[in-house]
Amino acid sequence: MAVDLDVALVDHHVHGILSGELDEAAIESGLMESTAPPPPGTSAFDTQLGFAVRRWCAPLLNLEPLAPADDYVRRRLELGSAEVARRFLAAASVSAWLVDTGYQSDAVTTPDELVALSGTPAREIVRLESLAERVIRSGVGADGYGDAVSSSVHGAGTAGAVGFKTVAAYRGGLALDPGRPAPAQVAAAAGRWLREIQSGAPARLEDQILIRYGIWAAIDTGLPLQFHTGFGDTDSRLARSDPALLHDLLLASQPAGTPVMLLHCYPYHRQAAALANLFPHVYMDVGEALNHVGARSATVLAEALELTPFHKMLYSSDAFGLPELHYLGAIGFRRDIAAVTGAFVTDGLWSAADASRVADMIGSVNAQRVYKLGPS
Ligand SMILES: [Zn+2]
To answer: Got the DSSP string for 211-247?
Structure first.
């Protein structure tokens, strides 16, 4: 089946691109989840993602496909970051970015800057832990913390944010106590956190009671709540980021009906698929993984599609920093969904009309419905 470049895509979890000119080390770092540089004498280009950049991105810089990494970096520096960003972001041809603004927000473009570079509209996803850290630094007392977080979460929704994101996986893991914390517990935990900050600790939310409080405040809004799960950087303990650990919280949150969006999921994408199959309010994506597994991406997408109902999977790139990732995610998904569903059609298992309908659902229709974006 030919790749249908017309499949509309809503990138439901994405970040900005790094501002300013990037040197070679910054470009290599952008290809890795690890914050450490590659070992001496090796290159981050020697990965599935690095090969995919050389294969698919080089032509947009007027290089041959699979141009050597050194030539790629040299050409990228020659063109400059702004021109490179314009080329890749426009060529991604997505209809909306839903931007997580909570990670390295000083280093990357704002949603408005992303709109200006790409010509594509953007909506904001608010990260709960960053919001809590702003609240605790605002001068609020321990007793006022809970109400301040709740009104801040509610205010983000009324100010136009289309969803929330939690990095609980990075802050202790996903085996969360499913209960909603009582006000006295929240005040006591906020008091402990305030005392730590007063004694010089950074305002980084790690307290499990306060993390759960933020999650429940977001559930109360009814707006989709994204969970980082699976592969992430070294802060995230992989074994504690298995989405299956959320099972009790999913049971507890099911009556509210707030959509829970399991992000990335790899290598637990089959667990996430099972949860999306079982729980009416659970959705999943394999964004991020598809870029990082490169030539194996169609296999991972096919595995995720084994059990995930087609109305429960969404497209994302999870691109951060390098606009190559925004582009690769989009063209890779279009290529992979065509390959995976095309094989079902060839085998006489699916109709071509169903294959096209499923691509549309995963690409954009599900996101428009769940985030209430309206048609693109
Ligand atoms: Zn992300």
So the answer is: HHHHHHHHHHH-S-EEEEESS--TTS-GGG--GGGGH
CB 162 within 8 A of CB 224: yes
- Two structure tokens written together for 371: 């985030």
Distance (Å) from CA 253 to ligand 1 centroid: 23
289 in Cβ contact with 231 (< 8 Å) = yes
The CA 143 to ligand 1 mean position distance, Å, reads: 32
Distance CA 66, CA 51 (A): 7
pTM, two decimals, is 0.96
What digits encode the pLDDT tens for the residues 285-326?
Answer: 999 899 999 999 999 999 999 999 999 999 999 999 999 999
Q: Whole-angstrom distance between the N-terminal and C-terminal Cα of the chain? A: 25
Q: How far does residue 103's CA lie from ligand 1's centre (Å)?
A: 8
pLDDT of 198-207, one tens digit each? 999 999 999 9
Tokens 């006489």 sit on residue? 348
- Residue 3, pLDDT > 70, answer no
CA 100 to centroid of ligand 1, rounded, Å: 7
Tokens 């979890």 locate to: 13
Distance from the alpha carbon of residue 280 to the mean position of ligand 1, in angstroms = 24
Neighbours of 81 (CB within 10 A): 20
- Report CA(135)–ligand 1 centroid distance (Å): 22
